[in-house]
Amino acid sequence: MSEKVKKQMDELAKLITEYKLSEATIEADSFKMSMRKSAPRMVAMSTQTMAVGHDEESHVDAGPIVEAAPVQQGTPISSPMTGIYYSSSSPSSPPFVNEGDTVTAGQVVGLIEAMKVFNEIHSTVSGIVKKLCAESGQIVNPGDPLLYIG
Fold first, then answer.
1. End-to-end CA distance of the chain
2. Residue 36 pairs with which residues in a beta bridge?
3. How does DSSP classify residue 91?
4. Domains in the chain and their CATH numbers?
5. Which has the closest alpha carbon to 124: 110, 139, 142, 141?
6. Residue 100 — left, alpha, or beta (φ > 0 → left; ψ -120 to 50 → alpha)?
7. Distance (Å, rounded) from C-alpha 146 to C-alpha 96?
8. What is the pLDDT of residue 110?
9. Over 90: is that where the pLDDT of 3 sits?
10. pTM recorded for the entire structure
11. DSSP letters along 10-76, please?
12. Nearest partner of 83 among 20, 8, 139, judged by Cα
């Protein structure tokens, strides 16, 4: 692999990290490179005793791999679209909600800017804000949880 390609790969990886992107593509002349960042997976494994025989081979049977179920924080309010999430109506305004705040169904809990249009995000349930997941200014994708209400 040439040094030029390695440098472009490093730059693309840096952009993905810096802008918290899930994927990015660089295209120039006859060259095209895409990178996709996958979400980290938590894996729980069952441990069994190592079987050691008198022959030359030994093996470990770790059993089936089971993915750990995510801990439920409450009802997620998820992003309906790709865009930039904002927790307040302007940089000098207080956030729409904070952790511990009580919200009602239909209340505005954030904004998502897509194509220069600000879209209000409304709570679908009433309750207490348990966890804020998205940071203001962060790019969000459809289905990304913005906050949890319990």
1. 51
2. 23
3. T
4. 1-49 (no CATH), 75-149 (2.40.50.100)
5. 110
6. left
7. 12
8. 95
9. no
10. 0.53
11. HHHHHHHHHTT-SEEEEEETTEEEEEEPPPP--EEE---PPEE-SSS-EE-----EEEPPPPP-SEE
12. 139
CB atoms within 10 A of CB 43: 8
For the four alpha carbons of 129, 131, 135 and 139, in that order, the dihedral sign comes to negative
pLDDT of residue 124: 92
Phi, psi of 78, deg, nearest 5: -105, 160
Q: Encoding tokens for residue 109?
A: 């809990």
Q: What is the pLDDT of residue 13?
A: 74
Q: Using pLDDT thresholds of 50, 70 and 90, give the confidence band for residue 30.
A: low
